[in-house]
Amino acid sequence: MMTTVRFAPSPTGHIHIGNSRTALFNWLFAKKSDGKFILRFDDTDTERSRAEYADAIAADLQWLGITPDRIERQSSRVESYDTAAQKLKDAGLLYACYETPDELERRRSRARALGRPPVYDRAGLKLTDDERAALEAEGRRPHWRFVLPNHDGDPFTTRRTEVSWTDLCRGDQSVDLASLSDPVLIREDGSYLYTLPSIVDDIDMGVTHVIRGEDHVANTGVQVAIFEALGAPAPVFAHHNLLTTRDGEGLSKRKGALSIGSLRDAGLEPMSVASLAVLTGTSHSVEPMAEMAKLAEAFDLASVSRSSAKFDPEELNGLNARLVHEMPFADVEGRLANLGIAGGETFWLAVRGNCVKVSDAQIYWQVVVGPIESLVEDEDRDFLVTASKLLPEGDITQDSWGAWTSAVKAETGRKGKGLFMPLRKALTGLGHGPDMKDMLPLIGRQNIRDRLP
Ligand code: GLU
């Protein structure tokens, strides 16, 4: 059977770097096994889901280098969910409940006060037809719960029921179904919570592996039971640790923190974001991988650690710089042109080692074409006047800087920083930057003359 995975975001906000970890894990897993990647929008919550968010998520994935083989929307598959729900109802596994959220909360508080686990008592399952009719006559609408298979025929006497699976990240896992409330699958307004649609989709779309965050481990116990109730084998599961910032704070789609869009707008390379998102919290060191194929080589679900994956957003700049320093001209040619930079490969190779982001090349292009604000300290004025007179004749080449500074040194007796820094500041307006040997030919004789007093 072809390996098939899915990334299933709810389009209720922009995806952040933590969500991209899940997307990339699925993508790399599919790539490594020549499988298929489905982008599935879990948009059954019509109040909060928005088409703009779905479009933005697809664009963010594209930017990261993920091109789904198939895109699905749960909102267009409701009939399949209705069929599955009917099947469960016919089997007596889906029952109507009428408690309001307040009533449920009161019951939970009472259970906690008595030292009992706040598990739903299946009161809905005891209702007679007449009682249901009376509640509906009051204007109540039912929500529907799935009866967990945690009993031996009498649902009011539960027994410990372990659902076990071998998790590709966490090893052997089990969840006791007697410790959980029967999950609500259908809301009062008839809309589906994500649980059932997710299973129906995974079955219909031939999903072989479910790779998602560890916040879904308890859901997996429930979902395995529903797969069984629907007569389908459960897929293989992998629950990865979640990315958190250094202070341990989780990322929230709603807060917009570290969204993929904001990282893109900040000028970061998709591969530095992807490298950090994938390699943090694994046994592999966090290194910038220039290509998805390289990242795929470094990626292994079994190397994902059990503890949280903490990262410092600042690390992104360091990774990005390392990628940019090695970036071939062919990879940036178009982007440099879009930034109005016409210096070609010579310029790029001269400046890339000083760029954290590709867009930093603009700083040095400005130095090349000018105008710049030349920095000339009063005490260096005479020195610079002398230097100007000693500028070698002929073409300015990569050799010119060495020849020029030797001549200036011989004439003025200055050396080291006292020799180079005033020249750099006068010619570039900056106290640091690419090698002057490379910059000099790019700046050119006219600019050199104009920038020296
Ligand atoms: N929509 C769910 C989420 O974003 C999907 C979880 C899953 O992959 O099953 O958390």
Q: Can you walk through the features of this model?
A:
The protein is an alpha/beta fold and 453 residues long. It has four domains: 1-72 and 194-326, Rossmann fold, CATH 3.40.50.620; 82-179, Glutamyl-tRNA Synthetase, Domain 3 (Glutamyl-tRNA Synthetase, domain 3, Alpha-Beta Complex); 327-369, no CATH class; 378-451. It has helices at residues 17-32, 51-64, 78-90, 101-113, 123-126, 129-137, 195-204, 217-229, 260-265, 270-279, 292-298, 315-325, 329-338, 344-351, 361-369, 381-390, 400-412, 416-428, 436-451, and strands at residues 4-7, 36-41, 70-73, 94-97, 143-146, 162-167, 171-176, 184-186, 209-213, 236-240, 243-245, 309-311. The strands form five sheets. Strands 1-2-3 form a three-stranded parallel beta sheet. A hairpin with a 3-residue loop joins strand 6 (162-167) and strand 7. The radius of gyration is 31 Å and the shape is elongated. The chain starts with a strand and ends with a helix. The mean pLDDT is 95. The site of glutamic acid has 9 residues, from strand 9. Glutamic acid binds next to strand 9.
Chart the SSEs and their pairings.
Layout (H helix, E strand, L loop, with lengths): L3 E4 L9 H16 L3 E6 L9 H14 L5 E4 L4 H13 L3 E4 L3 H13 L9 H4 L2 H9 L5 E4 L15 E6 L3 E6 L7 E3 L8 H10 L4 E5 L3 H13 L6 E5 L2 E3 L14 H6 L4 H10 L12 H7 L10 E3 L3 H11 L3 H10 L5 H8 L9 H9 L11 H10 L9 H13 L3 H13 L7 H16 L2
Parallel strand pairs: 1-2, 2-3, 9-10, 11-12
Antiparallel strand pairs: 4-5, 5-8, 6-7
Helix pairs in contact: 1-10, 1-11, 7-8, 10-12, 16-17, 18-19
Bound molecules: glutamic acid (GLU).
EC number: 6.1.1.17
Keywords: Aminoacyl-tRNA synthetase, ATP-binding, Cytoplasm, Ligase, Nucleotide-binding, Protein biosynthesis
Family: Belongs to the class-I aminoacyl-tRNA synthetase family. Glutamate--tRNA ligase type 1 subfamily.
